[in-house]
Amino acid sequence: MSDNTTILQGKVALITGASRRIGAEIARTLHHAGMNLCLHYRSSEKEARQLADELLAIRQDSVITLSLDLLQTDELPGLVKQACTHWGRLDALVNNASTFYPTPVNDISEQDWDILMGSNLKAPLFLSQAAAPELAKHQGSIINIIDIHAERPRRKHVVYSMAKSGLLAMTKSLALELGPDIRVNGVAPGAILWPENEADQQAHQAILEKTVLKHAGKPTDIANAVLFLLRDAPYITGHMLPVDGGRLLNI
Length: 251
Fold this sequence. Notes:
By secondary structure, the chain is of the alpha/beta class.
């Protein structure tokens, strides 16, 4: 068996929504694997700088932070340019940033559509488009953080579920369009972190009972799946990897 531990050393990843929660854990994991990081954030500047300081204390000149509202589509090429400039390359794009909230069908507004489709589908598409020429130079990868509800919609989350379904279709389409120079894959979290505005413990337990493993996962489970697809899976593209404790078997 070959030793893959040094494959990512010195390579560069741009992670969107990297300052908190799952994005921050992905950043820590890829940094530990030797990658240099461009940590994107929108408004969580304090958290982004704290994470950068944490990682820079481990390895100097290994992290930069970049701020942008990803709904500003015309600014996405500039974000990629900033990411490429510091180390002169880009090897991975992790489309992690996401907006999540319920949209019961009778209450859906055009603003809901713009926000949820924009953050979960439009921004990943146009950021991938902007990054593709640089990624292709180094046989790079795109990883999209999808959701198990891309395949089976979540009740009262019509627009979000549609957006994540679109992101799954985008993952497969871009794998077809960008190969062989760029691999494109997705990771689909299940019950990993509860939304910050959801405090219903009874509802949470009911969800966990639908998993095969009967417990919640951890952000490290998602981060390790991203690492696997970037480092250990050179012959995988166009695939969505569920990390859900078996919930898709009994959703």
